[in-house]
Amino acid sequence: MTPASTGKAWLGTKLRTSEWMAASFFVYTAALSALYPLGFSARLASLAAPFFVVMLVATAARFHDATTDRARDWIIPASVLAAYWQMGWFAQSHDTGWQSTWLSWDRLLLDQWGLRTLLEQRLPFLPWILELSYLCLYLIPPACLVTLYQRRAWNCIDRYLLTFVAGTLITYGLLPVIPVESPRLAYAGQDLPAIHSVWRDINVWILDHLDISTSVFPSGHVAVAFSSAFGIKRALPGDPKLFAFFLGLACSVYLATIYGRYHYAIDGLASILISLVTWGLCDLIQHSA
Q: Whose CB has fewer CB within 10 Å in the chain, the N or C terminal residue?
């Protein structure tokens, strides 16, 4: 094969819809990099990212064997993680105007409507479960892919990945728009859980050392959980028990963000709405691709 024919074959490679979605997000961040005072290396990486993603998946697609196809499946989850950390480059001063209002809504939910009493007095084992589910969030996308592998649902993988990546990356893309600080940090020492667990210690350490400070609105954690659940529903519509499991896990993650003061309740609600809308749109996107 000549270099010219090799180049034509590479350019003619058909990418999955989820891969185009990921590449489109990095086109957005490349444009966003022109509006923020980034350093040279961050700006260069932002500009190169969409080309790198397309090149990587196109190269993997050309081999089209079982091993390479399975390795290709993990490019999207890896790109989502990279996208989240990239959002850290766009951190600006936080908008404190909304935070006091959202805090009052949370206190209404936790104290006046009895969520805190329910979790700490009537169901005291639940805070332990909520913190563990929040920690397990990072395993949800791999677990979904492994589940599809076990079912040998090879043709359904892109249906899951598109739903997951669309809901998650749209959420990430909104983080610089409303720069809000976590209530755990903005109101340090206030409204904290009365029930302590080792899982909370781990979660707080991860957030203190590995998280970004751009914003908590909408919630990236909640978006990952619900978009994964809706993705499994699209990929395996005939297994309601599996969907119920991942949806229950997503709800647990959402409750953990409120009770643990990692997020305001509205952060997760916005992410759920985004995930729901993208879930509904994914069929239209995939059918038109």
A: N
